[in-house]
Specification:
single chain; GMP Synthetase, Chain A, domain 3; three-stranded mixed beta sheet; 7 helices
Length: about 170
């Protein structure tokens, strides 16, 4: 039985908590041995994953990259088949009011335009963008956001009165 996305995220959070707890182990020798064992295990799994990826066809590599948990494992081991910019664009395409201006490993620039009532504020949207980029492409060096220029009305209000201003009120 495989984990669903919620279970996978809970397991990742639990694992991170357990790993960060190793820093509090008072016995230095035990702490170092535990860390060495974890590094050896991670290296072995990374090698296994590299062998799987080298034998996989493009469709399989793409399917593996689409799986959130596997995607992060590929990132950890430097095996992800997509470039940082591609991962960022894919991750941000679901966010309403966000337009990717540029995205590569060094920098991501996005234009933010909250979409109507109930939409997050520009600050909340900018934080969501930063969190999403960190999740999808942790190697990105910088995330820049800019507010989009307000959109002009489809029919400018002034055009509704064009030609009527010069006419007397009774001739309209």
């Amino acid at each position: 039985m495989t984990w669903n996305e919620r279970e996978a995220r809970e397991h990742v959070a639990r694992t991170e908590k357990l790993l960060s707890g190793l820093d509090t182990v008072a016995d230095t020798a035990v702490r170092e041995q535990a860390l060495d064992a974890l590094h050896a295990l991670a290296e072995m799994y990374g090698e296994c994953l590299a062998r799987v990826m080298s034998g996989a066809d493009d469709a399989t590599r793409s399917a593996m990259a689409d799986d959130e948990l596997v995607s992060h494992l590929l990132l950890v081991h430097g095996l992800h088949p997509e470039a940082a910019g591609q991962r960022v664009r894919r991750a941000l395409e679901e966010l309403r009011g966000v337009t990717v201006v540029a995205a590569d490993e060094a920098e991501v620039r996005v234009r933010i335009a909250p979409q109507g009532c109930g939409a997050p504020s520009p600050e909340q949207l900018a934080q969501t963008v930063r969190d999403t980029v960190a999740w999808a492409a942790p190697e990105v060096g910088r995330v820049e956001t800019e507010d989009a220029a307000p959109e002009s009305a489809l029919i400018p209000v002034d055009s509704l009165f064009r030609g009527t201003a010069a006419q007397p009120a009774g001739n309209r």
